[in-house]
Structures are given as structure tokens and as C-alpha cells.
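Hallway conversation turned thread

IA: we were arguing at lunch whether anyone had actually written out Phosphoesterase, DHH family protein end to end. Turns out nobody had. So, for the record, here is the sequence (313 residues) and right after it the C-alpha cells. Reply here if something looks off.
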Amino acid sequence: MDVQKAIFDDIKRKQTIIIHRHQRPDPDAVGSQVGLAKILQQAFPEKKIFAVGKQIPGLAWLAEMDEVEDAQFDSALILVLDTANEPRVDDQRWRRGQEVIKIDHHPDDDPFGDLSWVEEDASSTSEMIVDFANRFDLKVSKEAARVLYAGIVGDTGRFLYSDTRPHTMIVTAQLMETGIDAVAVNQMEDEMPLPVARLTAYLYDHLTISSSGAAHVILGAETIKSFNLGDAGTASLVPMAGKIDSVKTWAIFEEQDDHSYRVRLRSKGPAISGLAREHNGGGHPLASGAKAKDLDEVKLMITKLETLTAKDK
């Protein structure tokens, strides 16, 4: 089946289209979501097209979310972007929709939706949205290009990651040719609030690096609260350990209010997605997330990370 054509046919048929993304969004989640909304709004001005989810102050410079009444969902086509599994979808009203379509670039460990278009080799879901627009001759406005560019920049780590393909650069050039201020977007994505900068200093001071190159840091709930991050969160902290030349893999353990731990796993070489799946998570081979129920599970994950890193020598 030509899944892209099937998706486009559904879009043409439906009058109300509501676009979702994952919780705790990053620039690709918001960029692909809002970029697609703007593309479809321009192509089909007679339709009702919304982008929904929790408004994140730290991403307000990128886009604002729409307010949608519950009743709108009952007859809607639901598009869920950049979301690997059902529990991570932001705004659970998506389940009320008439039809659900999943569009994503993460490993498809949790297939869901009536239609699913997943491209694991794509740098980002934003890149996929540009490809979709190009295929069906949909105009990518300067406004849409700006948020899609931000999504690609965010998910490629400023084009540092291995999923940056030649095609990624072609798509990026297309977006830049619309006249967007790429430098301004780059600067916004590179900046961090002062509390996050101070927490970054804490991370470097408390980072443990094994002889194999596996690194980790455990951030207690009280420690995180003491930095008064507000809505800034810790996402911009994640790549920092990888800037150290001796670090090959790393894990950041963040204690939650129930004393479980959110785990962010990253790697410069050995795949860590298998480790993530073993601990209630998943993701890309070099960028994954997981959960640990307590410190004992945290210690087990640290041991496993060191083992798989040592085997990669």
C-alpha cells in the first residue's frame, strides 16, 4: 500500500483534522506538528485544522498550541506525529477521533493507528513532513519552513548526529530558501536559561566516567528542585556529557516525585536502544529513554551500560 497517498486521501476527505505530538515536546515534535498544520491550513483553507498539546513556555518562541473543544474530536481525523508509543501522546482526547494516523521516525516498537507511516532512517519527523509536502505539491510557506527547520536542527543535534543524511541537507536547503532567519532559530535552540546552565555545571562536577567511556550522573529530585528550573526542564542537559572526548555512552538519571527515575540514554557508537527496551523504554539506537523504578534498578542499568560500552572497544 502507498501509505503516503492513503494519508493524503484521508486528509482530503476529512473536514476536521487535529494534530498531536508527544509529551514533553522537543523542537521536532512541535516543528513537525505545527509545520504540517500550517501546510494543510494553506492547502485546505475550508477545513478546520488544529495543533494541540500542553503549551511549553520554553518553546513558545516556536509556536503556540490551539484550544480545541472536546466535541471537535468526535468527527476528526487524528494525526499523531513524532510519538513512538500511545502512552506518550500529549492530550489523550486523540482516542476520541474517528480515525488515527501515526507519522514518526522512531523505531516502530508500538504500532498504533489505522494508518502508520514510519521512516526510521529519517533524521526527524520534520524532514518527513517536507517530503510529504513535496510529494503532493503542497506549498511550504516561510512560516511553516521556520518551524520545520527548527525541528530538523533539533533532532540532528545541529547536524552532528549520524542520522544526518545528504537528503537531510537538501531538505534543509529548501527550507532556508524560503527566506527564514536560520541564524535566529539556531541561536534560540543553542541558548539555555541560567538555571539550566548552573545545573549543567553541576552535571560536569558530578559526572562519573568509567574506564570504558560509560558515563552517568544521578540527579535527585531535591537537587533538581534546588536549581529552580521551572518549565525549562532538563532536556538541554542531555547532550552535554557527550562533549567530553573520553565519553562514549552516557546516562542521566532524574528522580521523579514518586522516587522512580527517568533515564536518558545516549551513545556515540554502541547501540543503547536494547538497554532502554529492557527497562520500560525505547528509542533510536544512539538516543533512547527508559525508566528505573528505584536506585537498585539505576545501579543495574549503570552496570549494563558499562558492559556494553566495554564490548564496543
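OS: looked through it. The first strand starts at residue 16 and ends at 20.
IA: good, adding that to the notes. The radius of gyration is 20 Å.
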